[in-house]
Amino acid sequence: MTDWSMLKVSFSFFVGLCLGYVFRIFLKISLILCGLVFLLLFGLEYADVVNVNWASIEQYYDAFFVWLQPQAGTFQEFIKSNLPSAGLATAGFLLGFGLKRK
Fold it and tell me: How many domains in the chain?
């Protein structure tokens, strides 16, 4: 009889490792792009080219985090129900997120 549990554990670690590495690259690109967009908005607003309604942006930002809180709770329940695989996937994710390219 073949024991497939080790394959499941190894696969979850490998997937977590890949996701962590890709997420790190995505996060860097996203932060750079968001920073450039905000610098452009600040500069255009300072030059009186555009008028940015920051109160409206703040409302969208707050509404997003109100929506996100229940979603995060659902994700936590999913992780708890699959704890052994999720633990190794999280370890792989953290390792992948911390990898540095040379």
Answer: 1
